[in-house]
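ARCHIVE CARD
Drawer: 12
Card no.: 0347
Subject: one protein chain, sequence and derived structure
Cross-reference: see card 0346
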Amino acid sequence: MGWDYAWNSRKELIAHLCDEPTNYKTLVRKVTSEDGESVLWAVHEIGPDDKENPGFRFVMCYLMRYDRKHRLHGCKEIGETMGPSYYSCPLSFLEMVPEPEGEYVKQWRESVRRFHADMAEKARRFKALKIGDTVKLRDGCTPSEVVLTSLKPLRGTHDGVLYTVSEQDLALRTAVDLNNAALELRKQGKLAEAEPLLRQALAIDEQDRGATHPKIPHRLNNLCTVVIPQGKLAEAKSLLARAWQLKRGQHDLTSTRLLFVRLAIAMLELQPVEVFVGQLKNLLALESLPDHAEVVKVWDITCFIESLRPKIPPDAGNFLTALVSAMNDRAKLADLDRFPEWRTQPPIPLDAPWPNAEKAVVKC
């Protein structure tokens, strides 16, 4: 649907979208600002007003603009199933609406959750600023960085000149920013460039969230996926041992990924794989796994597997590929039975020790 301009005020436009009599009612609404656009989010419901028998609910994204030439306010409607390229929808709205079917919905909802996690992290990073910090400014700003001399108002110096800085000018690279940039570099095979970004993301989360936060094992695992292809296996084993120790008693989706990467190391070193496969079999037998770290549900690790293929037997590479497919889609678990290392391996308790485990250092 295109743009429709017909309202004399934004208040009148919002009333038309949410308050005027229609075949649906508006349960909640909120106006946000994103990428310079005013966005009205709403949850509508069609059907009975009965808590025990609720009607059909859906999330709508309304972009709102003002046409100065014609002095009219307008909107563009985008349903959730169309996968809007805006992500400031309140998380509580998603909780009110069961996830509908559609190829774009799951990806859009994950992007909304990442958007809010990123915003929360940027807020934490901003609160952690202190006078004397050197901060980089966003692209296009002159100068490119300043030394903070005041926080309220936000001011800093560069080459002896004092500048007033807006919060929007700060290029506060969060752990999420660094992680995502590193994973793009990993896809391109630029492992040496990705590694310091992942180390910095880990350090930020350790500082802001604490060294035992559920996000830390996820960061450690991502770091291992770039150090392993570079031959740093001893360090990777130590990092994974630390991550696995942190998961004790709160195993979730990240636990399966830790086991997958540790299994890959065992294959590289031609070491026994039974414990890692057995523990994976234990976890994947569960109907569903929690996600304490709020990670992307579909794990794209193809580049990591391809980097290992020249160093492991062909069947091992094929097994890893089939395994990650089953981790992403439980319907493919039966495909693993063609591999004897999976078919003949019984589940193993998650508290069973790993063979040849490196000493883990857990920060407190």
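Annotation on reverse: The chain has a mean pLDDT of 92. The chain has three domains: 4-117, 129-169, 175-343.
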